[in-house]
Amino acid sequence: MTRSITDQQWLGQQNHDLVDAGHGHLLHPAVKLAFTAMQQKAHSDGIDLQIVSSFRSFERQLAIFNKKWRGEAILRNANGEVLDNTALSSIDKLHAILTWSALPGASRHHWGTDLDVYDRESVHQWNGSFELVEQEYLPKGPCYALACWLEDNMAEFGFFRPFSENKGGVAREPWHLSHKAVATDFEQSRSIEAFASTLKQSDMLGKDTVLANLPYLYNRYVLNNGS
């Protein structure tokens, strides 16, 4: 039975039910238990499974989005190639941002059910600059062993990769895990009406472009149904 999720919760505006999973990373209590068990199994298999990012509030996601809109952070295409922000139209810039970063209110990280992970020890021993890109989770990357381990073990603990393939929406994110049982309640609680209302009241840059295209963007990126 689906538990009651408020608009404030799935939009990332309320996080009172979350608990500290270590180093300030907040997770839903059931997700913390599942992750801790998975982390222990990984450790016994020689994998230093650690969290890069977990819960992010609406305001934090808004700051990330606005920073990218202003050109203060790197934009990439779906292949990870760096784009020239100044050469992009508003709609092209928006698509570039949403390929890798959610709109505020639309991130799965708002729920405490999703987290980005890495192999901390392997990254520390690596000579490169860790940027949380797909190549780092492919052969020769510092987190390739972790990616393979997750493929074999994550389902045992209730996790899956919501962005395991690029459908023409969000790019592939082999580091992004979601706890299926708990996240499903949040997925079913979303509504474009509450989302639109929240965005209209926000200080989001590019708001006119987003709102003018919201039904399309909601289907392509929020629901990740692709183009």
Automatic annotation (TrEMBL):
Domain annotation D-alanyl-D-alanine carboxypeptidase-like core: ranges: 25-179
Assigned keywords, A-Z: Carboxypeptidase, Hydrolase, Protease
Signal sequence annotation: none
Domain of life: Bacteria
One of the GO biological process terms: proteolysis
SUPFAM superfamilies in alphabetical order: Hedgehog/DD-peptidase (SSF55166)
One Pfam family linked to the record: VanY
Molecular function (Gene Ontology), one example: carboxypeptidase activity
Xref: InterPro entries: DD-CPase-like, VanY-like_core_dom, Zn_M74/Hedgehog-like
Protein name as catalogued: D-alanyl-D-alanine carboxypeptidase family protein
Species assigned in the record: Alteromonas genovensis
Lineage: Bacteria, Pseudomonadati, Pseudomonadota, Gammaproteobacteria, Alteromonadales
